Amino acid sequence: MAIEITSLIFYFLIAFTFLLVHYLFFLSRIIRGLNNLKPPSKEVLTHELISVIIPFRNEEENILANLKSIEEQNYPSDKFEVIYVNDSSEDDSLKLLEKNISRENIKLLTIPGDYSTNAHKKRAVRYGIENSNGQIIVTTDADCIHHPRWLFSLLQSFDNVTGFISGAVEFYSGENLFSKFQQLEFTGLVLCGAGLIGSGHPTICNAANIAYRKKVFDEVGGFKDQMNLSSGDDELLMQKIAKDSDYKVRFCIDQDAIVKTNSNKTISDFFQQRKRWASKGLFYNNKTLVIKLILIYLFYLGIIAQLFLSFIHQIFILSLLLSVSIKFLFELIILKKGKNIIFEKLELKYFLLAEFLQIPYIIFIGIFGAFGNYLWKSRRIKR
Question: What burial class does residue 219 get, using C-beta atoms within 10 Å of its C-beta: 0-12 exposed, 13-18 middle, 19+ buried?
Answer without folding.
Answer: middle
